[in-house]
Each structure stands twice: as C-alpha cells, then as structure tokens.
Amino acid sequence: RNRLFGGLQKTSGKLSENLTGLVTKAKLDDAILDQIEEALIISDLGPATAAQIRETLSKTRFEKNPTDDAVRHIIADEIESILAPVAVPLEIDAFPRPQVILVIGVNGSGKTTTIAKLAHNYIEEDYGVMLAAGDTFRAAAIGQLQNWAERIGVPIIAGKEGGDAASIVYDGVKKCTQDGTDILIVDTAGRLQNKSELMDELAKIRKVLGRLNPAAPHNVILVLDATTGQNALSQIEIFGKVANVTGLVMTKLDGTARGGILVAAAKQFGLPIHAIGIGETMHDLKPFNARELAEAIAG
Ligand code: GDP
C-alpha cells in the first residue's frame, strides 16, 4: 500500500472498526442499516452522507445476503461519488503573471507549512515562486515563513511585525512582475476571533491586488486542520462569509482518525479540495484523489 493509505491508516481503521460485526451475511434490515448509518456519523462523514449511503444500501439488490466486503464496496463507491466533484487540482493559469494565491486559515491549522509545501511542489514543476509574509500579526509567523523560504530556496517579501499586510502584498506583486516570477503565495493572519479586522485586512489586500492585477487573487485557499473535526466545517462556513474561498487544503490527515471529515466537507460545501497534508515536511502535500481517499476512508 502506498504512502497515502499509510498516512490515512487511523481514518481507515476507524470506520472499519465501527462497521465490523454489523454485517454478518444476514439481510440488511432496518436495524442494521441504522447501525451502519450511526457508524458513518461517528466516523465524521456527517449525517447527510450517512443518510445517502443508508439509502443506497437499502435500495441495493444483493444477489446473496451481503458480505462485509460487498457493503464496504458500496460505501467506498458512494464516498467516491461525493468526493470526485471536489477533487480539483490547484491549476495555475498562464496569464497574468504573477498568479496570486492567498492562503487563509486559523493559526495552527498548518497554513505556513502548507505554503511551504505548495512552494516546493511548484518549484519542482519549474515555476518561479515568491512568498509574501502577510501574517504581520505574529513575529513568529514571519520568522517561520522566512525559515521555510530559505530551506526551499525561494525569495520572500517580509516586513516587520505589526506592519501593513497589504503593502507587503503590493511589494510582492511588484517584485514578481519585475523578476518575471510566476506565482506569489501570500500568508495571511488567521484572526478569526476578530472577524471585522480580518475582513478589513482581506478587503485591503484585495483592493491593492486588484489595482495591480485585476483578476488577483486568483486563488483563495482555506487551510483546515482535519484533527479538529466538526470545527473544520464551521471554519469553512465562517471564512466562506468573510473571504471568497476558492478551494480547501485539509492538513494533518496522517495523525488523525477523522479523515471522514473530508466527505462531510465535500457533501456540505462542494468547494474544491485541492490537496491534503499528511506530514510535516515539504514533501507531504498530496493531490486529492477521490478513489484512493474513498477506499482509505471506507477501510
Ligand atoms: P499555522 O499556524 O497555521 O501557520 O500552522 P503551522 O504551519 O505552523 O503548523 C502548525 C503545526 O502543525 C506545526 O507543528 C506543523 O509541523 C504541523 N503540521 C502542519 N501540517 C501538518 C500535516 O499535514 N501533518 C502533520 N502531522 N502535522 C502538520
């Protein structure tokens, strides 16, 4: 099994465990369907997904009484059908340059690490990348991004703690234009506690960007920590209201049994999920592959 499955072992184990013993080659009667639905809910797939899968199972005409495997197969297919529409890679358009990717998310979600991983992947694809340290709220955030930039070997625009994020973004776009850099990845402050400040800041960044490059930001990526389960879902809702989120990255799927949250997010919001984080190094951002994930989650 590949590394992705390895990374999702805990998630895989969870639904498996929750389903084990439910199907014993007997008829899938209401009582068993109820228990399967419950198992899906406690595995973080969400009530809507659980109801959908229950419905499909109840309508399926099995040739014989279903085996555990047959049921899991149907569950995996159903999960895949929910995940496939959101499995959208983060595409970089050819024009205009630079393409600007704004990265948002609460502190601790894995925002900085995800920026580093994205930068690394783009460098591997021969793009020119620059980072902008727009999280001026925390000195540590600036330093951390600078460390990553050095390690990956990409330039970075940074200012002082408490500085103006929009002016850093402005400098970043100017510099990219001068240097012919393809992609500017912008870190932002993750202050969800103060929504109006966050909104003002994002609005200001947008305004500055819009003046230089009318279509920018080309992508607004919300980074979510899978280990927070339901919290990740409410963050999609809240950030969705204050920023025009164009896609998601879900991190820390390696350390959690809560990978089912990917399905809940896909079902509830339908936003593209560009990639998943399965570790702390720059090599640990993986494309979102609906079939692989469906199989991992279905166990
Ligand atoms: P930020 O505050 O949102 O910028 O979050 P950071 O990027 O600093 O990440 C917070 C912590 O989570 C750090 O210790 C990271 O190494 C860790 N982290 C980030 N992404 C992942 C991931 O995909 N898997 C694991 N296991 N840890 C991660």
UniProtKB/TrEMBL annotation:
Native source species: Sphingorhabdus lutea
NCBIfam families reported in the protein's UniProt record: ftsY
Binding-site residues, GTP: 105-112, 187-191, 251-254
Domain AAA+ ATPase: 97-299
Membrane topology: Peripheral membrane protein
Residue span, Signal recognition particle SRP54 helical bundle domain: 4-83
Biological processes per GO annotation: SRP-dependent cotranslational protein targeting to membrane
Transmembrane regions listed in the UniProt entry: none
Subcellular location per the Swiss-Prot or TrEMBL entry: Cell inner membrane; Cell membrane; Cytoplasm
Protein name: Signal recognition particle receptor FtsY
